[in-house]
Specification:
single chain; 456 residues; alpha+beta; Outer membrane efflux proteins (OEP); 4-stranded antiparallel sheet; two-stranded parallel ribbon; 10 helices
């Protein structure tokens, strides 16, 4: 490389970089790292995990340390107080109310307290809160799995869609080449006196229409490439060079057999589909929350201990920060709190929680129906498109033979340009139909795998 001339190096640097090949597995891996929807689902799962840890706060003791250190200022005051009354002999005869003046002053004021609270019983509300948080975390984890499944299918669908549009573009370009050949033939026949000028004009119009179709197809390729880039989480759409997966790589039909019977697929979906597991965990969380709300009808029993120090001195044997054996007051209590009536607030909260559990059960049932419908539709699509692919392949073979026959008839002078043009269009349509059928069949199998919760 150092011996190459500078001009050649500059020329090589100016050449556009070749598009990197992209396999379906690489596309799925890229989406797993970059897709924003998956990032949001992971964030929701992580938040649910934090909520689970926080839910144990109702079962664990709470320890609070409070304190205040400073000085106390008091202005001059007059206070009414009881003062003793003595007779002439110095004997106490009683008390009387007197107003006494107190001069302004200041003094140190320090205090510190350590309080321990531990709830022993609250109608099992704290335990239900933990159970609800755990179930919600499980639901979030399964929802992440469902999002991963959905994104994987969407990436697969868009990957195949781009592959289909690129292959359709090649078919359109081949049609342009055949139209250009027909233009040359029409010109040659007209020059030889065997054709008409109208045939040359008709051939050019057909060529123009095919070129317009190519430009429209190029726009479809750009749209498909952009859609795939979005699914991969890329900010721009690079020029992917797709590596065709096995189902559509060969010239013939894929060797997949018919999918399993519908009852077997439904049983598999009930075991593996993350959406159903997420809804079931959601039902469990809602039922735990309903039990937690009903716990408010019970009294709350707990332990409370307080160690408090206060005084005018901060340090020293009797200071607030001095020996713990002096200048303190301590209490230990068994506490009871029972909300007997709160304006029907407790009853309303319990009823709302019950309704939330009922709604979660309905959503779980609805999800089951949705999954069953998705599996049935996807299986039917796989079976139908497999038949369509076989028919499209037979149709392509017939269209290819028809074009060969039309060309032979044209060479023999017993056919017109119109017959060859019609055969050319039928061949292009047959190729497009086969491309569409093969790709759609592969997408349908991916959709069936998504519907049952994993690879078949």
């Amino acid at each position: 490389m150092p011996n190459l001339p500078l001009a050649l190096l500059l020329t090589l640097a100016a050449l556009p970089a070749a598009a990197a090949p992209l396999t379906l597995d690489e596309a799925l891996s890229t989406a797993a790292r970059n897709n924003a929807d998956l990032a949001l689902a992971r964030s929701a799962r992580d938040v649910a995990a934090v909520d689970t840890g926080q839910s144990y706060s109702g079962l664990l003791p709470r320890l609070d340390l409070t304190g205040g250190f400073g000085r106390q200022y008091a202005g001059s005051q007059r206070v009414v107080t009881s003062a003793p009354v003595f007779d002439g002999a110095g004997n106490l005869t009683g008390f009387e109310q007197r107003t006494l003046p107190i001069s302004a002053g200041e003094s140190a004021a320090h205090q510190a307290a350590l309080t321990l609270r531990w709830t022993l019983f609250d109608g099992l509300s704290s335990w239900r809160r933990v159970g609800a948080a755990q179930a919600a975390e499980e639901a979030s984890a399964r929802q992440l799995d469902e999002s991963t499944l959905q994104i994987a299918f969407e990436v697969t669908r868009r990957f195949y869609e781009l592959l289909k549009q690129e292959r359709a573009l090649r078919v359109r370009e081949e049609a342009v080449e055949r139209s250009e050949e027909l233009v040359r033939r029409a010109d040659a026949l007209y020059t030889a006196g065997r054709g008409t000028k109208a045939d040359t004009f008709a051939a050019r119009v057909n060529l123009g229409n095919d070129r317009i179709a190519v430009e429209s197809q190029r726009a479809a390729v750009v749209r498909a490439r952009t859609d795939l880039a979005m699914a991969l989480g890329l900010s721009e759409a690079p020029a992917f060079e797709l590596v065709a997966p096995a189902p559509v790589a060969g010239p013939g039909l894929p060797s997949f057999g018919e999918p399993p019977p519908l009852p077997d697929l439904l049983a598999l979906a009930r075991q593996r589909r993350p959406l159903l597991s997420a809804r079931a965990a959601g039902v469990s969380a809602a039922e735990q929350q309903s039990s937690q709300a009903r716990g408010a009808f019970w009294p709350v029993v707990g332990l409370q201990g307080t160690y408090q120090r206060a005084g005018p001195e901060l340090t020293g044997s009797y200071g607030v920060l001095g020996s713990p054996a002096h200048q303190y007051a301590a209490t230990a209590q068994l506490t009871l709190a029972w909300n007997l009536f709160a304006g029907r607030e407790t009853l309303a909260a319990a009823r709302k929680a019950e309704l939330g559990a009922e709604r979660a059960r309905v959503e779980a049932s609805q999800a089951g129906q949705q999954v069953a419908a998705e599996v049935a539709r996807a299986r039917e699509a796989v079976v139908t498109l497999a038949r369509s692919s076989a028919l499209a392949q037979d149709n392509l073979a017939a269209a290819d033979q028809g074009l060969s026959l039309a060309r032979e008839r044209l060479e023999a002078g017993v056919a017109s340009q119109l017959e060859v043009r019609d055969a050319t269009q039928k061949l292009a349509e047959a190729k497009l139909a086969l491309v569409s059928a093969l790709v759609d069949h592969a997408v349908a199998r991916a959709d069936l795998a998504r519907a049952v919760g994993g690879a078949l």
